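To whoever picks this up:

The parser on our side crashed when reading a file containing two proteins. I've narrowed it down to the boundary between the first structure block and the second sequence. Both blocks are reproduced below exactly, byte for byte. First block:
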Amino acid sequence: MAINRFKRKQGSQPEKGKKVESKKIILSYLHMDRAQGQTLEIWDKKEGRLLRWGNMIQHLNTLTVQQALLSRVIVKYDDRDVLDVHNMPKKSNWKYPKHLGHKDIIWCKIVVMQLVRVIGFMEENIFYVVFFDEKHEFYPTEPKNT
């Protein structure tokens, strides 16, 4: 009987209307470069900076990668004209961290406050913090309107 071969078990089709939720952002200090930039200890000495970063982490943990990029909470450095072979800004005051090996990194920043940035890269939904940058040294630019 040909009709029977098209029957399937009940419940084998996914429910309609259910969306697959994307993974939320997780932060990791696995690739932190303590030789360049600042440390959490230094940031702890600046009033309100560490608290601001902690609040930013809590907010990031509620966002998917797409939400963080669209809202520009995380911004990719992807202007190939100003990047070197490691995708570091050519004018950077810092060098590519040797412990990263030859990873193909697209650097990203999280603006914590004014010139204060956290620099790292994304792999899937994990943001790997590499530098704490309180003086805009990773990607120095000329001040505007001066």
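<<boundary where parser fails>>
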Amino acid sequence: MTAPGPGPSASGPAAPGPSTSAPAAPGRGAPAAAVAAAVPECYGDICITCSDTAVEVTIVRLLADGLAVVNTGQGEEEVSVALVQAQVGDTILVHAKEAIAVVGR
């Protein structure tokens, strides 16, 4: 006797993975296109949001709740500056969208 589980049915083999009746959250079984749309594009070897490398960026403007808009050299991104004392115009070191140091002070 075999153990119950997924297997062929009258309509053919069972489809692996979650049901596609409702969209899943990005990173939780979502279609690849949905996940790709949720993750910013990386440039070369450096990506603030997904790299193992910290990068230098310049603060363009400060926002509420310890956030800032920064110039990455490839465009603008929003990062947290909650761990540092930084001002508009400062160069900061950012890893995983979190400022970890102010450069040159």
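After patching the parser it read the second block fine. The beta strands are 55-62, 67-71, 76-80, 91-95, 98-102. Helices lie at 32-38.
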